């Protein structure tokens, strides 16, 4: 019985101790969280925060990825554009290159043409009838030679014989009609006179200029019976006026008998107003012409034109002593020149 009693007391004590020691038990327990609970709460908040952050990040990532995507697209677009620009540039470059090459080609052609022009001006310039012949002018007649800029001489009208002995002859004297007097003064003989299609003297100044290059002379003659003869000289030149248009002749060839110009070789020109001959007489006045008088003549190609029947009276006719003698005046004479180097 005691044992039960003790046990009851013990329980009572425990109860009391517990009750006194912990009066709070009787109170309403405060809403305090345990550390674990706190920890859990903090975690949750952190989690929430983290989740929010993750969500934010995800959205950012999505944004970013969207942006990246759009950026990528724009990059791709830009690359494509660049590529097409590159292609365009390349094609422009090709165009430019082809244009450049075309221009270069044109420049080459122009340079070639310029070179050819220079060659033409030096080699193919028109000096006389032989130049015209080489340029395929093959019909005898009147031509105009361009002015000589070097000498300052004007344009010159000439008559070209493109047929006789290969052609290319510039005629310096003609007697055929008798309509022009050859009894002229120094000045007239210097500059020339007469009619280019009829009787004329080309002019000592022009003849001098034309014979600055090695030149041949040919004299074609016809008598009143219709016989034709010629004399040719492998070299022919006239000095300048200061040297009184002195005559220089090379080797004779031809079919007109005796060479009747040899006697006049190395003599100077005389006219009625300028006696440069080798005689006490005035040969020009005696022979009524202008010529390279010696003392006085073995030929007188610039003498007086006499028609058939008149020519035996005087010694001043158009004579070639080696053929018909001193008193026979010829019907027709032509003196013509061309370069020694001319090849028909
Ligand atoms: Ca004299």
From TrEMBL:
The record's keywords, sorted A to Z, are: Coiled coil, Disulfide bond, Glycoprotein, Secreted, Signal
- Signal peptide positions on this chain: 1-26
The coiled-coil segments of this chain are 47-113
Query: What are the record's GO terms for cellular component?
Result: extracellular region
Checking InterPro entries in the record gives: FIB_ANG-like, Fibrinogen-like_C, Fibrinogen_a/b/g_C_1, Fibrinogen_a/b/g_C_dom
SUPFAM superfamilies assigned to the protein according to its UniProt record, in alphabetical order: Fibrinogen C-terminal domain-like
Record-annotated Fibrinogen C-terminal domain positions: 120-341
Q: Which CDD domains does this chain map to?
A: FReD
* Major location category of this protein: secreted
What are the subcellular locations of this protein?
Answer: Secreted
Q: Which Pfam families match?
A: Fibrinogen_C
Q: Which SMART domains match?
A: FBG
Protein name per UniProt? Angiopoietin-related protein 7
């Amino acid at each position: 019985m005691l044992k039960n009693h003790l046990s009851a007391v013990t329980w009572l004590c425990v109860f009391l101790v517990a009750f006194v020691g912990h009066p709070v038990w009787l109170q309403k327990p405060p809403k305090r969280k345990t550390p674990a609970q706190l920890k859990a709460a903090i975690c949750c908040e952190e989690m929430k925060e983290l989740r929010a952050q993750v969500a934010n990040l995800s959205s950012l990532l999505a944004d970013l990825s969207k942006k990246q995507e759009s950026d990528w697209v724009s990059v791709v677009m830009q690359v494509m554009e660049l590529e097409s620009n590159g292609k365009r540039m390349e094609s422009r470059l090709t165009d430019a290159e082809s244009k450049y090459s075309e221009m270069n080609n044109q420049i080459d052609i122009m340079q070639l043409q310029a070179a050819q022009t220079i060659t033409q001006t030096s080699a193919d310039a028109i000096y006389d009838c032989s130049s015209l012949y080489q340029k395929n002018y093959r019909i005898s007649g009147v031509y105009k030679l361009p002015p000589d800029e070097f000498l300052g001489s004007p344009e010159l009208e000439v008559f070209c014989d493109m047929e006789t002995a290969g052609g290319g002859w510039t005629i310096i004297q003609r007697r055929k009609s008798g309509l022009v007097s050859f009894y002229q003064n120094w000045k007239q003989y210097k500059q020339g006179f007469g009619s280019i299609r009829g009787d004329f003297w080309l002019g000592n100044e022009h003849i001098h200029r034309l014979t600055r290059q090695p030149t041949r002379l040919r004299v074609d003659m016809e008598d009143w019976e219709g016989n034709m003869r010629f004399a040719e000289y492998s070299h022919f030149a006239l000095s300048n006026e200061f040297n009184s248009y002195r005559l220089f002749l090379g080797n004779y060839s031809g079919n007109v008998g005796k060479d009747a110009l040899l006697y006049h070789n190395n003599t100077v020109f005389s006219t009625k107003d300028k006696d440069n001959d080798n005689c006490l007489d005035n040969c020009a006045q005696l022979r009524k012409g202008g010529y390279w008088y010696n003392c006085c003549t073995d030929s007188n190609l610039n003498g007086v034109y006499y028609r058939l029947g008149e020519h035996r009276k005087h010694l001043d006719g158009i004579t070639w002593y080696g053929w018909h003698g001193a008193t026979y005046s010829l019907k027709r004479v032509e003196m013509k020149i061309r370069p020694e180097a001319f090849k028909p």
